[in-house]
Amino acid sequence: MQTCACISLSGGQGKTTVALFTSLLLAQQGKRVLAVDSDPQANLSFYLGHEVQANQPTLLEVLNGQVTTEDGIYPTRYDNLFLIPADRGLFKVSDYLSSSGTGAFILKLRLKAIASLFDYVLIDVQPSRSQICLTGVGAAEYVLIPVEANTKGFNSLIDTLNFLKEQASLMAFTGKVLGVIPFRDRWTGRTQSLESRENVEAMREFADDIPILPSIRESEQFKKALRQGQLLSDLGYPDLEYPFEQIIKRLAHE
Ligand SMILES: Nc1ncnc2c1ncn2[C@@H]1O[C@H](COP(=O)(O)OP(=O)(O)OP(=O)(O)O)[C@@H](O)[C@H]1O
Ligand SMILES: [Mg+2]
Fold first, then answer.
1. CA of 34 to the centre of ligand 1 (A)
2. Mean per-residue pLDDT for 102-118?
3. Which ligand is nearest to the CA of 183?
């Protein structure tokens, strides 16, 4: 089982988009995939069509040990794709994680229990330096950092890499950064916008030996695919799936 987290410390950087399409594509290729919604905004659960019922466990109960990990896993409408969902109540786990003293390791521990059931775990991490974020990062063997191809995205990259460095120095992050994914990269025909080009170039310089992976183009088709819960290839845009195919290739080579 390979565990990969999508993290970027600003909002709207493409974390959920990357976690979702990578999960969908892996599952379509026949891999057994567990998507973990580690964000109280619960967008990943929403896009996967999961509605949390009042008496059903979510990531909150899995993390605080009220249920076994398996009891928090639900099938989705997609073959091979399973979900540990979240809802707004996930924030309540912070006290448990901080008082446990080893909060950064709790998700890792919970996932260990189901390691034989899945090929891949994809974690959508909350965009803040919270206990929930820490436990998501602590569980990750691999990290993907999506960042918008603009100044906000560049700043998110700086914050996120600094944060990971800090956590690594505390041994709370022991994974590898698989790469940075420029998000909403703007092109008109064959011409990349100046803003996108300058920012991706700045990211390349800043990220140093961390690879900049193929970017996710700005496109309305993503919103449509997200809304309809379909792959971009199902909508007739297989080219837009390229960045996710490359992520999967890199994971397979690890
Ligand atoms: N290729 C794309 N082009 C334009 N917009 C996109 C594209 N892909 C996704 N979006 C939209 O961009 C927004 C932000 O994407 P996403 O939700 O993946 O970011 P996020 O980092 O998970 O945000 P948050 O921090 O709020 O969790 C969403 O509203 C989504 O519909
Ligand atoms: Mg999100």
1. 21
2. 95
3. 1
Ligand 1 pocket, 184 CB below 6 A?
yes
Ligand closest to Cα of 160 equals: 1
Q: Tell me, using a 6 A CB cutoff, whether residue 229 lines ligand 1.
A: no
Give mean pLDDT, residues 127-140: 96
pLDDT (0 to 100) of residue 48: 96
What distance in angstroms lies between residue 209's CA and the mean position of ligand 2's atoms? 26
Task: Give residue-wise pLDDT tens across range 45-56.
Answer: 999 999 999 999
Coil, helix or strand for 120? strand
| Whether CATH 1.10.8.420 fits 2-253 | no
- Cα–ligand 2 centroid distance for 180 (angstroms): 16
| Residue 20 dihedral angles phi and psi, to the nearest 5° | -70, -55
Confidence of residue 101 (pLDDT cuts 50, 70, 90): confident
Strand order in the sheet with 2-6: 74-75, 81-84, 33-38, 120-125, 2-6, 142-148, 176-185, 216-217
Of 159, 123, 153, the residue nearest 138 (C-alpha) = 123
Taking only Cα atoms into account, the Rg of the chain, rounded to an integer number of angstroms, comes to 17
28 in contact with ligand 1, CB cutoff 6 A: no
The secondary structure element, H or E, covering residue 59 is helix 59-63
- Ligand 1 lined by 211 (C-beta under 6 Å): no
Per-residue pLDDT band for 10 (boundaries 50, 70, 90) equals: very high
d(CA 37, CA 18): 13
Q: Where are the domains of the chain?
A: 2-253
